[in-house]
Design brief:
The strands form five sheets. A seven-stranded mixed β-sheet has the order 2-17-8-1-7-5-6, sandwiched between helices. A four-stranded antiparallel β-sheet has the order 11-12-14-13. It has a two-stranded antiparallel ribbon with strand order 3-4. Strand 3 and strand 4 form a beta hairpin. Helix content is 30%, strand content 20%. The protein is of the alpha/beta class. The N and C termini lie far apart (75 Å). The chain is globular and about 60 Å long. Helix 9 runs parallel beside helix 11 and helix 10 runs antiparallel to helix 11.
């Protein structure tokens, strides 16, 4: 006669790293967009990885920070023009791209600009360890300072296009003109700073028409800021989406002949409730802190750097505590599972920047750090992991 199974005998299995929905590097990720467009303009060395995109002489990429595919589809009333691009009524088609892991701004902008996955370009998170100094490096704010060319040595697609005779330009806030992130991810050709969204749209259209072959990038950040502060279910966020929708339409209506406009984003976002069940505080959890020298990344995509010799213990502990809510992997397991690109694409110089343990949230939970990251721990909207709400971003096309 079979013995009854006691509840105490149940040992939940942690999520396997290979079960995480890894980004579609090489066929449908942000890193594939600019190389595909540049290949269509005969820029040497570029590959058209996104097969369904048709070549155009003039290409403009409008990146809207924080506009996830799922969030856009959930708000058709606030974004009627963008919603119309989900179908083919305007001569284009709408589909999702995957951002790359982690789904965060610094990583995604580097993927867009270099055409390489995070394991190659080397900005694999919000904060990561600099192996040369042992310090945490904030790759969005570039603190502490390190040489941009050493940190990210590859040329951008804009630089390669400019060298091939394509008119390359970036139209963004003047704030970003001389930042290290712009230098390593988006430089090449000319930068044009404009404060208002309307001015950026008008100038982007002008730059697109400035040559027979043009590659133009423009950017809008405030939707992301509203999501972090108020959440993607807030009136503030919806108001920003309405404004963004008008900006896209303004640019689309000014496209010169033989042009393609591509609207995309760097990540989606989810709102995480403010309670202990959904926000696990690393600074108050002795189990998670045990053996940890540095905590990197962000709430939904953590790089964990262990005290030398404690790597296996930290991995075991984090799996036991978080393994039903997070994909928890060793550095080598995350690389093998394709989180940062194909395993052969992960540069040796980047290897030590990745956590000894990497934790990516599956459920609506965060690992906050209330003492060392007070501002980040107070955000309503969050992103970083591989769930569809964070990972999928739109690729919307308008052609003239």
């Amino acid at each position: 006669m079979a013995q009854p199974v006691s509840a105490w005998d149940h040992h939940p299995q942690p999520l396997a790293p290979a079960s995480a929905p890894a980004p579609e590097y090489g066929t449908g990720s942000l890193a594939d967009l600019l190389p595909t467009l540049a290949a269509g303009m005969a820029v040497p060395g570029m590959t058209a990885a996104i097969a369904e995109l048709t070549a155009a002489d003039r290409n403009c990429v409008f990146l809207i920070d924080g506009l996830g595919w799922e969030q856009l589809r959930a708000h058709p009333d606030e974004a009627p023009f963008l919603t119309s691009l989900l179908g083919s009524s305007r001569g284009g088609t709408g589909r999702p791209l995957t951002t790359g892991f982690p789904a965060t701004t610094a990583t995604s902008l580097a993927s867009v600009g270099t055409g390489r996955p995070p394991g190659a370009h080397g900005l694999p998170g919000y904060t990561v360890r600099n192996p040369d100094t042992g310090e945490l490096m904030n790759q969005l704010r570039w603190q502490p300072w390190t040489s941009p060319k050493i940190w990210q040595p590859y040329p951008t697609v804009f630089q390669l296009a400019h060298e091939a005779g394509v008119h390359a330009a970036q139209v963004s806030s003047p704030t970003f003109e001389n930042t290290p992130l712009t230098k390593v991810a988006l430089s090449g050709g000319t930068f044009h700073g404009r404060l208002s969204g309307e001015d950026r749209m008008d100038l982007a259209a002008e730059q697109l028409a400035a040559a027979d072959r043009s590659l133009v990038y423009t950017y809008y950040a405030e939707l992301d800021g509203a999501g972090h502060r108020f959440g993607v279910d807030s009136d503030n966020w919806r108001g920003q989406l309405m404004y963004v929708d008008r900006l896209v339409q303004r640019l689309a209506e000014q496209l010169p002949p033989n042009s393609a406009l591509y609207v995309t984003a760097d990540h989606g976002m989810i709102d995480v409730p403010f309670d202990e069940q959904h926000r696990i505080d690393f600074d108050e959890d002795w189990e998670l802190r045990a053996g940890v020298a540095l905590l990197g990344g962000e709430g939904r995509a953590r790089h964990v750097y262990a005290v030398p010799g404690a790597e296996n213990d930290v991995l075991t502990c984090w799996r036991e505590v978080l393994g039903e809510q997070f994909w928890v992997a060793s550095r080598d397991e995350a690389i093998a599972a394709g989180w940062f690109g194909r395993p052969d694409q992960v540069d040796q110089r980047v290897y030590g920047r990745l956590g000894d343990v990497v934790a990516a949230a599956r459920d609506d939970v965060l690992i906050i750090a209330s003492e060392r990251e007070p501002k980040e721990s107070a955000m309503v909207g969050n992103h970083g992991s591989m769930t569809p709400a964070e990972q999928l971003v739109p690729l919307l096309e308008v052609r003239s």
